[in-house]
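Q&A log
Question type: sequence-to-structure
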Amino acid sequence: MSYSKPNSDIASQLLQEPARAYAPEAYYTMSSRSISKTYIKKVLALSGLSVSELIAILPISIDTYKRKSIFNPTVTEKVLEIEEVYRRGNEAFGASFNQWMNTENIALSGQKPKSFLTNSFGVRLLLDEIGRLEYGVLA
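Response status: OK
Response body:
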């Protein structure tokens, strides 16, 4: 299946615009769909990540990103994981969340939280840490 031009089947399943709020079940359903570059750009704006930082996380090359306008569900899943982390963090902590993501953290072995976005286990760790911080559990 080609993802360069949407046909009617793909277009009806294509993620193009982020919603205002998602439940975890919605991310599960959405992850099996294709995603548009427009959606990805909106997640970039939400996260403050650069295109090169995003490409280091996604299973595509910079050339593929530049050439295509629609991406397969594997890319969708990674983009949605990034979106979920930044949405939860921004809802909990506001603008200071982006600073937290870029600051070395003792609770995360002295690493920047942003570095954990590269795989699903790191994303879950970040979501757990955000949840602990929301409730004041520091250890």
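Response note: The mean pLDDT is 88.
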